[in-house]
């Protein structure tokens, strides 16, 4: 359990420039997608690494220090200098939705406290990538879903989904949920390396799912991340990501607003 007591704060974040990475389910690859985007942005040109930060509001299912939490994986895969505890102030060992895991741990989790925990990161970095917990409709607190946090932050959302059979239904439902709450959806990334992913040899739907998602939602699919992405080399991860995803869509969704220096994509 995190040492954070869950005390509330209404302190506003310094800015809202960023992208919220959510998913159609747990285990779809939000962490590797977030790390991949961070690695690309931080490698874009010298100095940019000081302007792009990563935040994991809440994580559950592992104990910090074992090297298996999302925050620890993000630090390693994206080449971050922040400590995992800085990326995520709320860690719960129970493999449950954050609201349930927090209740079992005796922590009163509120959306105000979750947001307040990120103030130092938002002060440090002018652009933030935020990785959610589970899917968009996962219970975050006793009253709010992950989608409510996206609304509070005022950021566009990127949806991560499996590449195989069933993903069209899951993705369209996630899109409908976010749209109903007024969230801007920047795009979809399919992940061939998701926990239950199947290859195109075993699952012919893999080859057509991206087109179907675009056809029925009007939301662009940025591409499909391949299996076996390196989590121990940020440079290699960035290179593989550049080849797999449409980075012009990323740049359009995430205009750079650095904390200092006036840098942008140009």
TrEMBL record:
InterPro entries: DTB_synth_BioD, P-loop_NTPase. The keyword Magnesium applies. Its EC number is 6.3.3.3. Its cofactor is Mg(2+). It holds the Pfam family AAA_26. Mg(2+) binds at residues 31, 70, 131. Substrate binds at residue 60. ATP binds at residues 27-32, 70, 131-134, 191-192. GO terms for molecular function: ATP binding; dethiobiotin synthase activity; magnesium ion binding. Its main location: cytoplasm. CDD domains: DTBS (cd03109). GO terms for biological process: biotin biosynthetic process. It comes from the Bacteria. The keyword Acyltransferase does not apply. It is found in: Cytoplasm. Keywords: ATP-binding, Biotin biosynthesis, Cytoplasm, Ligase, Magnesium, Metal-binding, Nucleotide-binding. One of its GO terms (cellular component) is cytosol. Homodimer. Belongs to the dethiobiotin synthetase family. Catalyzes a mechanistically unusual reaction, the ATP-dependent insertion of CO2 between the N7 and N8 nitrogen atoms of 7,8-diaminopelargonic acid (DAPA, also called 7,8-diammoniononanoate) to form a ureido ring. This is ATP-dependent dethiobiotin synthetase BioD.
